[in-house]
Structure formats: C-alpha cells, structure tokens
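Lab notes, practical 5.
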Amino acid sequence: MIAHSKKRMKSFRLSAIGYQLSASGQPPGAARSDETRVNRALRIAFSGGGTGGHLFPGIAMAQEFVARNCASKILFVSTGNALEQAVLSRAGFELHPITAAGIKGRGVWNQLKAVLKIPRGMVQALGILKKFSPDLVLGLGSYSAGPVVVAAWLLRIPVVIHEQNILPGITNRILARFARRIYISFENTRGTMNPDKVCWTGNPVRQELFGNAGRPEDSTIQDSDRQRFTVLIIGGSQGAHRINMAVIEALEHFKGKKGLHFAHQTGQSDEQPIKEAYRQQAVSATVQAFFDDMARQYRQADLIVCRAGATTVAEITALGKAAIFIPFPHAADNHQVLNAADLVQAGAAEIIVEKDLSGKRLCEKIEHYIDHREALKDMAARAQHFGKPQAAKDIVDDCYRLLAAGNPEP
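Output from the prediction step:
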C-alpha cells in the first residue's frame, strides 16, 4: 500500500509539471490559471458526518472534485446513520459505514462504551482505505472522522481537515496534528490552530443552492405566491423542538392572516402535530419533516428562522438571505452563538437566545419585517457581504496544489 501510494504521488508530481501554482505559494482564493481548471482524476475519501452541518460541506467539496474531473472517485466513510444514507444516496455518492460513537457530554458509561468502539472502527477504516486507495482523505469533523483520519496517517495517505464552526470541535482539535492543511470557515478561528497549516476558505455550500437564489420569478410559481411573505423555518436536518413549539404559540396571532406563508422543516417527531397546528389556525404552510428541495425553499423565503449551525450560516450568507437566528443553547462551547455574532453585530441578522424565545416574541419579529420590507432587504444585503460562495472551489484548488507540491509529513 505504501509503495503504491508513493508511486501514485510520484506520477502526480510528474503530471503536474507546468502547474506553477503549486510553487507560487498563492493562498486559497487566488486567481486560478487555465492549468488549475483542468485537473486529473483523484480518489478522495471524506470522513465524518453524522449531521447535515458536517455532511453538506463535504458534499459541496465532493461535487467540486467531480466537476473538475468526472472520472474522480468519491467515498464517504462514517457511521452510516439514516440521514447520511438518504442524503448521500440522493447526491450519488458511495457510503461505507464504520463503528464509532461520540464521547463528549455523554456520561461516564457511554464514554467508556465509545472508547471501546475505537479499535474496531480503526480496523474497519484501515480495511476501507486499503481497498479504496485514496489520493487524499478529507476530515469533516465529528467523532466518526477520528478512526479514518488516523488510519490514513498510518497508511501515509495525505490528510486535510475542514472545520465548520468558529470554535474547532474536539475531534478536529485532536486530528489537526495529523493534517497537512486545516481549512476554516471563520477568520476568527485562525488563532486557535496551527497558523502554518490554516487556510481561511469559508464553509462550502452545495452548488444546487445557488440557482436563482433571490425571490422567485420563474414560471413554476403562482402569481399570488410572488406577492406573499414567506417565512422559512429550519431547525437543522433533524428539526428543533423548541423552535417548533414557539411557532405553535405564535400561530394564534397569525390566524387566518392573508398573504403570509410558512415553509417549516420540523424533524420527524414533530411533523404531524405541527401540521395540525397550522390547520387549526388556518395559516398557509408547507410542513415537512425534511426538505429535499432546499434551493427552492431558500429561493422563496423572505425571512428565515433557524438555528445558527455553521452550515446554515454559510448557506444564508452565500445566498444573501435575511435571518433570525435562534442558536442551540447546548452546542459545544456555545459555538452557535459565536457563529452568528459577527452578523448580528453588523446588522446582517437578528438573534433570539432560546431562554428569551416565546411565541409572542417570534410573532413580533415576523410582523416587524412584514411591515418593514426595506429593512429586510438591507439585512439580506449585509448578510451577503459575509458569504464565501467560492469556498468549495478554493479548497479543491488548494488540495490539488498540496498534492502537486508533495508536502512532507505533518
């Protein structure tokens, strides 16, 4: 395996003659020459996932690798939960499961069980990587990335990692020592990790979300729909029960209100009661446990009510949408509040901390922006200044440079 990897790396370096960016020291985001747009096929293994916040940036990067060369091979390695299986299947990417469990905040007994799973996960990861023989392993964070990144390091396969949040999670803090590059989503993350490895690229956003991201003008939308005010509520890939309950409280204030529509992603457990609440209050709504058509949902939304996970923040800023963030209060190191802080300070978003959340407060905020459309547009425009829609391209550019340069072991 090691000999094969060295042979492949040598072949890549020979094929990269004339690829001057590898020697120029240009940072991610620098102008790309014609040579960088025509890249050889690679085999890339993505490790980690578990939630949409980790998974969707990985999909965005995988799509970019395939866009560079359709012969590139992509493999995701994670625990294989229901969300990962469904989302990756729709995206057309292969998933290989391994055994892994989280450790932080799970109690002593569950932590012990999680630690005991590590050797099995390592053996599985070694077998998968030996068979797939990737050019590069890209860690996405979450506990399932650990065995795969360490296995790649043992096999001398180059490793890079991506950190979505402003404060790096415990997994990426540990895995950073094995990585040749650390891609970060927020500039303020620079001081928390090895500056020689860090590249500020932003958080990759799936390309399909960029299609006509503004208010809809296409023929599939009814004329009456273009005139209505649409509130998109997304509590993450699994919903947010506390937000759902606040919406139910707010609906009595909107009973029978014309020109108002809600698109509400509830999560599986709350779907039916939320549907019934909208029906009882005669409020127009599209309610689903999970939206497969997020491009359409974003496009139609005038205002978004959501958690402040890093991927949600990245999508909202890249698309230039107005949002009220309700950060998850139990996020590690309170990182969701920090993810949203710069936007709120710049007038690019609003925030309601969960302890202050009520149906009445949410209703007041929504009614304010229904009556003040110019303020809503201003907030959306400010949000777009924070967006980095080229993040996936910049990361893939740098991965090619890294492989071409043949960086030494970290």
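Observations recorded by the TA: The domain at 209-384 is CATH 3.40.50.2000 (Rossmann fold). Confidence is low (pLDDT under 50) at residues 1-37.
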